[in-house]
Amino acid sequence: MDIKAPFHKKPWVIAGPCSAESQEQLLVTAKAIQSDTDLFRAGVWKPRTRPNSFEGIGEKALEWLQVVKQETDLLVATEVANAQHVEKCLQAGIDVLWLGARTTVNPFYVQEIAEALKGVDMPIMVKNPLHPELSLWIGALERLNKLGINQLTAIHRGFFTLEKSAFRNEPKWEIPIRLKKKCPELPIICDPSHISGNRTMIQEVAQTALDLNMSGFMVETHVSPQTALSDAEQQITPKQLSNLISSLVLRETSAEDKNFNAQLKKLRKSIDEVDMKLLQVMGDRTKLVQEIGRFKKENSVTILQIERWFEILKTRQEMGVSCNLENQMVSELFELIHKHSILTQTDIMKK
Ligand code: PEP
Ligand code: MN
User: Fold this and answer.
1) What is the pLDDT confidence band of residue 50, given thresholds at 50, 70 and 90?
2) Is residue 1 in a domain?
3) Protein residue closest via CA to atom 4 of ligand 1
4) Of 18, 137, 161, best ligand 1 pocket probe by most atoms within 8 Å of the beta carbon
5) Three-class HEC string of the chain
């Protein structure tokens, strides 16, 4: 992709309410946060899960955003979910647009939006899709990029999960890291509000995002969060936004200090050696798997004995505990090892 970073300041801060509710709410919020904010956000059309929730003010709120622009130094942004939204925003002089999580999942809408933006040179931000499918996220960015939009930014807002979780949307940090690996030039910012779903976890999520070298945040901020018409539990006050920003520690991606670099090099060398041993052990394990595969084939025995798999999972969890390893890491590791053990044996059976 041909990407031109739309901003250079770090961290880049986008703040403002989940939804535009009234002219007064927007203006009071914008004035209260302008010294802490680079870009003012407010949802005009709200994609709500159930009907009969507040679905946004619609077009009228674009005029309120124009007033925010006139009366503050802030640039303004809103979410678009179809081509009509794009047209209305372009007419209203909105500075930055974003595609929400419920839009990124739908290539038809993304394509329609990309076409409506053809020839327009403005920053567009793309939230991750609701579920952790990296290619859909990249696909949406590519659709925009193919039509000449290169001021792109990805927003990591976490992923829907059916599992019990402390988060409203699981961060699954590995997904934005994989996105960065595929598109190193693409700025990624974090939306700790939609990841947390509550006010208490925002700080910690935002700090993790910074420590993973993300470029900024989108934080839902409301003058009176308790009375907000959408996402009341996760919005913070302008004062809390200011405290959040001053609490964050901005770390460097590398250090000048010679001692630090020498020590880091030493530790990394030890890691390299451990990894080499790990791979040798994996090689030994694979040889045993092959032998077992051949042995089962000669004796006409199936590859899978489910009791053995349960036993492996259980005993490895116990072994993991005694090695101070996290349960989840051990089970994910053995799921992977077992998957490849099955594949190796399937190949042997075929020969
Ligand atoms: C929002 O930013 O208010 C919003 C609806 O977010 P998401 O698309 O991440 O759910
Ligand atoms: Mn919201």
Assistant:
1) confident
2) no
3) 100
4) 18
5) CCCCCCCCCCCEEEEECCECCCHHHHHHHHHHHHHHCCEEECECCCCCCCCCCCCCCCCHHHHHHHHHHHHCCCEEEEECCCHHHHHHHHHHCCCEEEECHHHHCCHHHHHHHHHHCCCCCCCEEEECCCCCCHHHHHHHHHHHHHCCCCCEEEEECCECCCCCCCCCCECCCHHHHHHHHHCCCCCEEECHHHHHCCCCCHHHHHHHHHHCCCCEEEEEECCCHHHCCCCHHHCECHHHHHHHHHHCCCCCCCCCCHHHHHHHHHHHHHHHHHHHHHHHHHHHHHHHHHHHHHHHHHCCCCCCCHHHHHHHHHHHHHHHHHCCCCHHHHHHHHHHHHHHHHHHHHHHHHC
